[in-house]
Design goal:
The protein contains six helices and two strands. By secondary structure, the chain is mainly α. It holds the Pfam family EF-hand_7.
């Protein structure tokens, strides 16, 4: 069994133990209500889940029934999170590409971490953060142009001085 599967089984086992407060080895529908603080499910959805997991329809979920059922749920959730992470990474890359075509910020993982956090949190500050990044990139690009202009001026001065020295000889 791989680490991912054992992690999922362990998560399901912990959820089961969270609900099985009297350690009877099974869960009733009412005991499953304790999951409402850990899972984004309504009471009617919990009813549906309970009925779906209760394979033998005896009104009790054993640890095995619970792990089999919630294991599938947790695998699906992990897969959805992976897809979401990939989508968020792609959105970040698109934003950075449009702001920073010369990849000045590509090496700054902290910028990506902050942007991703704000995106996941649906922060109203995300547009302001992106505006700040635009302003920073404008400053960086302005400084780069000034540096390149200075470099050209110095190169021209060097060429002029070499030419003057050659004319003197």
């Amino acid at each position: 069994m791989d680490d991912c599967s054992s992690d999922i089984i362990e998560q399901a086992r912990q959820l089961f133990m969270h609900c099985d407060t009297d350690n009877c080895g099974y869960l009733t529908r009412q005991a499953l209500d304790r999951l409402s603080d850990r899972l984004p499910l309504t009471m009617s959805q919990l009813d549906f889940v309970f009925n779906l997991l209760d394979k033998d329809k005896n009104g009790q979920l054993t640890l095995d029934e619970f792990i089999q059922g919630f294991g599938h749920f947790l695998v699906d959730k992990a897969a959805n999170n992976l897809v979401l992470d990939e989508e968020i990474d792609e959105q970040y890359n698109q934003i950075i590409s449009s702001l920073d075509p010369e990849n000045v910020l590509k090496s700054y993982e902290q910028v990506k971490h902050i942007w991703k956090y704000m995106k996941l949190a649906n922060s109203h500050l995300l547009p302001e953060f992106e505006d700040m990044l635009r302003a920073i990139m404008k400053e960086v690009n302005t400084a780069r142009v000034e540096y390149e202009n200075m470099e050209r001026m110095i190169q021209n001065e060097i060429i002029f001085n070499k030419s003057a020295v050659n004319n003197v000889e």
